[in-house]
Specification:
Length: 365
Amino acid sequence: MKIAFHAPLKSPDHPVPSGDRQMARMLIEALRVAGHDVGIASELRTFSREASDAAFSALRKEAEREIARIRRLWQSKGPPDLWFCYHPYYKAPDLIGPALSADFSIPYVTAESSYSFRRNLGAWKLAQDEVAAGARQAAVNICFTHRDREGLEAPIPEVRSALLAPFIDVSPFRDLRRTEAGGNRLVAVAMMRTGDKMDSYRMLARALALVADVPWTLTVVGDGPARADVSEAFSAFPAGRLDWLGERPPQAIPEILAGGDLYVWPGCGEAYGLSYLEAQAAGLPVVAQHTAGVPEVVRNGETGYLTTAGDIDALAAALRHFLVDGTLRRQFGERARRFVFEQRSLPAAAARLSGIFAEFVGSAK
């Protein structure tokens, strides 16, 4: 099929890296692996940081101009077979796809659409009404976690939904040579910003303080506006225990992970976390919390340990298990690598997408 792809939160071509941008790119690649012709339909970003009637009205006008532009293009060159929208939610609704899909009688599909009861007020309600209408119109709403699926179906029971497990491109990890650092090299990859990321950094620092008697070093990959706060959270540790690498390009991450022994990231509020999959693809077991979407990407007791949310003692105990037992660490790491390569790769995602389209959209054109 010829697919028009749109990500209203952040275009796949946006210059600032993030999990959203990475997932959008992965979806495009998986669709192409499945045999589809995918093009980015629009660069329009409908993200609003704060609720505002005036701002939403302005976005609507921008969207109307974009609809008119795309309509003229399609009338001249022909419409696609399907509109695919990634991650519409109350702060970034799809204000283009539903109208064009209806005008040209093509299927509308969403991935990672979400709905929040708490946002049914003021300008957020205006945006969320658009998300709900799009979810109802969609031939299928593709969800990456059971949690997200339940969150969409509860307020909008008539929606059609299907599950697609989070995935990554495993090819950069295929020929990696593990250079185990002796069991004590911990790795964390995360942006430095306020909110859930900062909460995870602080929790990690507190857990590491409880295993200070065991030899370890922590490599941190990431940067951002909360860098000073992150540094302060780890200020009690000797300088030799922390290796701050800053922001690194995506192509550098596999080798960094391959030089570690254990991936540790509490995961406060994580939608799912593609970094967990990358770490496992590199052969690293994971220590994180059993919270939000993390259980969708880490097999507790098989590829890592997921501890009770908020329990710092339990997080530290899980760390200690891996730090002192190299055999356990290698067993979990080997299972983690197999799990990602066999079940969370681009080919696996492409096959699942083909099945979803066959069930909800019809045979590929």
